[in-house]
UniProtKB/TrEMBL annotation, chain A:
Pfam families: ABC_tran. PROSITE patterns: ABC_TRANSPORTER_1 (PS00211), ABC_TRANSPORTER_2 (PS50893). The lineage of its organism: Bacteria, Bacillati, Actinomycetota, Actinomycetes, Micromonosporales. Residues 5-241 form the ABC transporter domain. Keywords: ATP-binding, Nucleotide-binding, Transport. This is ABC transporter ATP-binding protein. The keyword Cytoplasm does not apply. SUPFAM superfamilies: P-loop containing nucleoside triphosphate hydrolases. GO terms for molecular function: ATP binding; ATP hydrolysis activity. InterPro entries: AAA+_ATPase, ABC_transporter-like_ATP-bd, ABC_transporter-like_CS, P-loop_NTPase.
From TrEMBL, chain B:
One of its GO terms (cellular component) is ATP-binding cassette (ABC) transporter complex. The chain crosses the membrane at residues 35-59, 137-160, 185-204, 225-246. This is ABC transporter permease. It comes from Actinoplanes auranticolor. PANTHER family: ABC TRANSPORTER PERMEASE PROTEIN-RELATED (PTHR30188), PROTEIN TRIGALACTOSYLDIACYLGLYCEROL 1, CHLOROPLASTIC (PTHR30188:SF4). It comes from the Bacteria. One of its GO terms (molecular function) is phospholipid transporter activity. Pfam families: MlaE (PF02405). Keywords: Membrane, Transmembrane, Transmembrane helix.
């Protein structure tokens, strides 16, 4: 099963610019979580903090009993072998073709022979739809392909904690839908803890078990998906609906006058808030253990959640049990 | 303060590389590849530079010894100057200038493409996987080049002294054994080894801390070459001073 990841009181600044402060959350083991947030709110920095690439000024990140922030280098490297990271721009090795890129972690960390490596690499490349592109160099393929190759490389060591930085940006809507399904199937197959950083609303509504949002140097919320999807917070509502009217401006914040003016000029669009059914694994894939575990967990804390979220959860409960028997 | 932090980083990296050279599995393939690469960008310029360099020293020393009436020592004096000073420095300039800038540009480009981050999260230390092999390669190439530059320089010096200044071939060779001894050659190679290490570490340090896109890489390369030159000349002074104190010159 995947591993639980606990962030506690994280604060990060670059010089005098604070990216976010006092961020605490727990990614439940084996579940899929999404971190939302407007551009530049520090989602990538947060992801890098969880894997120990960025050192926060304060706080802890506990993975598998190891505090990533303060542990020794040896232990950090050992813990990282449990992780697979898909970077925002793929971060492929420019001097190697896709095959060698994806085979790299296997060659470095395992004693598999070349035939075994080939079969694993080909399987992962097929999984992300890159079969036939083995001999291409990263510089010769599109941004979307680089990303998918980055995901394939993140998966070859069967990680227990998968982090994806904006898996959807640079992908067309159809590929994004396939990718969403792929992440769900992957979770069903290997039961890994998954964190997705994105600003794609469709993905945020249909894929995760939990959603959080970073805004104005803070973690606005983090919890079961129903909480954010039914939230009345102006920031959340604006973000989910992708509107101009609301507290989020082109740069970080904006004044009240601009907000009022925009509310007047913006056409009245449909409100897309509300709980929609979560994706389920493709038929033929194993049952997603995380769904049942999450359900138990959420039912225990149900009474602490806002009424709208409770309703959403209770409606969704039906689907989970349905799926298991069906 | 910035310079201090930078110095700290260079020393930390140097210590890390030195430690990893003994404690981790050597990256043979990467080292060999880098060795050939650095050799390929430095050998030809080294050979081309060393002929006029040897000639200049031979001519200068030749005319000086004639003024002093010590013509019989022309050979030994110019060989010592070439082997102990000129050759390690020419080597250092080439390894730092041509080899170091290539190392720095390569690592810098990888850094801004987040390849280093990617490697780290795969549980692989970029210092061990990329920096150590490059530093070893730079050291190897420096020793190789030093041998090459010394040889070419000495042969060139001999040629110029005998042909141009009508020196006697016999006296040129005989004076070798009068003034020069084996430690002179060793210190030359040890210098080259140390210069290779410094050039490699300084270049790698600038490369892995590059930031701010392609322009950042350009700046990093520039800084690494300047910094390496400064350090190399300073270290040369220190080593020379120590050597001349510790190892008594022959015949003294
Ligand atoms: N190495 C760094 N040095 C200085 N500032 C940085 C560094 N990395 C990130 N920042 C700053 O931190 C803030 C958050 O950046 P980050 O890349 O995490 O945003 P993001 O939420 O991922 O945005 P996007 O959705 O566009 O990818 C930005 O203001 C950025 O300028
Ligand atoms: Mg980002």
């Amino acid at each position: 099963m995947g591993i639980e990841v606990e962030a506690d009181g994280l604060t990060k600044s670059f010089g005098r610019h604070t990216v976010w402060r006092d961020v605490s959350l727990t990614l439940p083991a084996g579940e899929i979580s999404v971190m939302l947030g407007p551009s530049g709110t520090g989602k990538t920095v947060f992801l890098k903090t969880l894997v120990g690439l960025v050192r926060p000024e304060r706080g802890r990140v506990v993975i598998n009993g190891v505090d990533i922030v303060s542990c020794r280098e040896r232990q950090l490297y050992r813990t990282r072998r449990l992780m697979g990271v898909m970077f925002q721009d793929g971060a492929l090795f420019g001097s190697m073709n896709l095959y060698d890129n994806i085979a790299f972690p296997l060659r470095e960390h395992t004693r598999r022979n070349e035939r075994q490596i080939r079969s694993i690499v080909e399987e992962k490349m097929a999984m992300v739809g890159l079969s036939g592109a083995e001999s291409k160099l990263p510089g010769e393929i599109s941004g979307g392909m680089r990303k998918r190759a980055g995901l394939a490389r993140a998966l070859v060591l069967d990680p227990e904690f998968i982090l994806c930085d904006e898996p959807d940006s640079g992908l067309d809507p159809v590929r994004t839908a396939y990718l969403s399904q792929l992440l769900i199937d992957l979770n069903a197959q290997i039961d890994a803890t998954i964190l997705i950083v994105t600003h794609n609303i469709q993905m945020a509504r249909t894929v995760p078990d939990n959603i959080g949002m970073l805004y104005r140097r803070q973690l606005v919320t983090f919890g079961p998906r129903e909480v954010l999807l039914t939230s009345d917070e102006p920031v959340v509502a604006q973000f989910l609906n992708g509107r101009r009217s609301g507290p989020i401006g082109m740069s970080e914040e904006k004044d009240a006058a601009a907000t009022a003016a925009e509310a007047m000029t913006e056409p009245d669009l449909d409100d897309v808030r509300g709980v929609v059914p979560q994706l389920t694994p493709t038929p033929g894939q194993p049952y997603r253990q995380a769904a049942a575990r999450r359900q138990e967990r959420v039912m225990r804390i149900l009474h602490q959640l806002p009424p709208a979220a409770q309703q959403g959860i209770l409606a969704g409960r039906h689907e989970v049990s349905h799926e298991r028997t069906g | 303060m910035n310079a201090l932090a930078e110095t700290g980083r260079v020393f930390t990296l140097a210590a890390q590389v030195a430690r990893m050279s003994f404690t981790t599995r050597p990256q043979v393939r990467e080292t060999v590849e880098q060795f050939w690469f650095i050799a390929s960008v430095t050998i030809l310029p080294a050979a081309l530079v060393s002929i006029p360099f040897g000639a200049v020293i031979a001519l200068q020393v030749g005319s000086l010894t004639r003024q002093l009436g010590a013509e019989s020592f022309t050979g030994a004096a110019s060989v010592l100057a070439i082997v102990q000073q000129a050759s390690p420095l020419v080597t250092a300039l080439l390894v730092a200038g041509a080899g170091g800038s290539a190392i720095c540009a390569d690592l810098g480009a990888r850094t801004i493409r987040e390849e280093m981050d990617a490697m780290e999260v795969m549980g692989i230390s970029p210092v061990q996987r990329l920096v150590v092999p490059r530093v070893h390669a730079a050291m190897g190439v420096a020793v190789l080049l030093n041998g090459l530059v010394s040889t070419v320089g000495v042969v060139g010096g001999y040629f110029f002294n005998v042909i141009m200044q009508n020196g006697t071939p016999g006296a040129y060779l005989a004076s070798f054994s009068a003034l020069a001894h084996l430690p002179d050659l060793w210190v030359s190679e040890i210098k080259a080894l140390i210069f290779g290490f410094i050039a490699g570490v300084v270049a790698a340090n600038r490369g892995i801390s590059a930031k701010g896109g392609p322009k950042g890489v350009g700046d990093a390369v520039n800084q690494s070459v300047v910094l390496a030159f400064l350090l190399l000349f300073f270290v040369n002074l220190v080593i020379t001073a120590i050597y001349l104190r510790v190892v008594p010159p022959k015949g003294a």
